[in-house]
Specification:
about 240 residues, alpha/beta, Rossmann fold, 6-stranded mixed β-sheet, 6 strands
C-alpha cells in the first residue's frame, strides 16, 4: 500500500507539472521565450535533420520540429515519458531506431532522469543527434524558486553540467549550446529596460540564461573487423622424452 501511494504521488506530481507548464507557456512570459526558442530552432534546423525523428515531452515546440523535419516524424507525449522513466520501463521503440531525438522539457517530468537518458541512448542510432530544451538550474531564475510556487519556478530545473557529464559517459559530444533569458520576463516595459544589460549574457558566454537549448551528437567509433593472418610456416616443438 505504501509503494502504491508513493507511485500515485509521483504520477500526480508529474501530471501537475505538465498542466502548469502548459499554462505558463500560454502566459506572456512563456510566449516570449517560446518565440525566442522557436526562432533559434529555425536557425539551426540543419543540425537536427534525420531519417527517423522522435519528439518527446511537452508539445510546445512540436510544430517547429515537425515543420523542419526531413524524414519520418513520430511523437510521444509526457505521460509515456512519465510512465517509462518513473517505473523503469522501456520506451516502446526498438534499439537503434531513431537518428534524431528531441526532449522538450522531458527530463523535468521524471524523478529518474538518468534512466530516461539511458533509454534515449538505447533507441538512438550510432550517428544520432539529441536535442534538449529545459530550465537551467544555474541561472538567476533559480533564486525566484524560493519565493514562488507557480510554474515554471515549481518545476525541477536541470543542471547543464550534470547533463553534460551524462552525455559524456554515453559517448556524446555537444555541438550546440545556448541559453535564453539572463533575467526572467517581467513584462514588456521591465524587460525592455533589462535589455540594456543583455551584454552581460554575452560576456558570460550565454551559459546562465533560464532556458537552455542543447544538441548532442553521438560519437561512437565503429569497430572494423580485422582479418586474422597466420604465418605460412609453423615450428612444432619436439616433446621431451620421459625416461621414467
Amino acid at each position: 500500500m505504501v509503494l502504491f501511494n508513493s507511485i500515485y504521488m509521483i504520477f500526480q506530481d508529474n501530471n501537475n507539472t505538465k498542466i502548469q507548464l502548459k499554462e505558463w507557456y500560454n502566459q506572456a512570459s512563456g510566449q516570449h521565450f517560446k518565440s525566442l526558442i522557436s526562432k533559434e530552432l529555425d536557425t539551426i534546423k540543419d543540425i537536427y535533420q534525420g531519417r527517423q525523428t522522435l519528439f518527446c515531452g511537452s508539445s510546445e515546440f512540436k510544430k517547429v520540429f515537425q515543420k523542419n523535419k526531413s524524414g519520418t516524424f513520430f511523437s510521444i507525449d509526457e505521460d509515456i515519458l512519465i510512465t517509462s522513466s518513473n517505473l523503469s520501463k522501456k520506451l516502446p521503440f526498438e534499439d537503434n531506431s531513431h537518428d534524431v531525438i528531441i526532449l522538450s522539457h522531458g527530463l523535468e517530468y521524471t524523478h529518474n532522469p538518468y534512466h530516461l537518458m539511458r533509454e534515449i541512448d538505447r533507441i538512438a542510432t550510432d550517428d544520432a543527434t539529441i536535442v534538449l530544451i529545459g530550465f537551467n538550474k544555474f541561472s538567476l531564475w533559480t533564486a525566484i524558486k524560493i519565493f514562488s510556487s507557480k510554474a515554471p519556478w515549481n518545476i525541477n530545473f536541470m543542471s547543464p553540467y550534470i547533463i553534460k557529464e551524462w552525455f559524456k559517459i554515453l559517448e556524446y559530444k555537444m555541438n550546440y549550446s545556448k541559453t535564453f533569458g539572463f533575467v526572467p520576463y517581467f513584462g514588456k516595459s521591465v524587460s525592455s529596460f533589462l535589455m540594456n544589460f543583455s551584454f552581460l549574457h554575452k560576456i558570460i558566454r550565454n551559459q546562465f540564461g533560464g532556458v537552455f537549448l542543447f544538441t548532442y551528437k553521438k560519437n561512437v567509433i565503429p569497430l572494423t573487423p580485422q582479418k586474422i593472418i597466420f604465418n605460412k610456416s609453423y615450428k612444432v616443438a619436439s616433446l621431451v622424452k620421459n625416461n621414467l
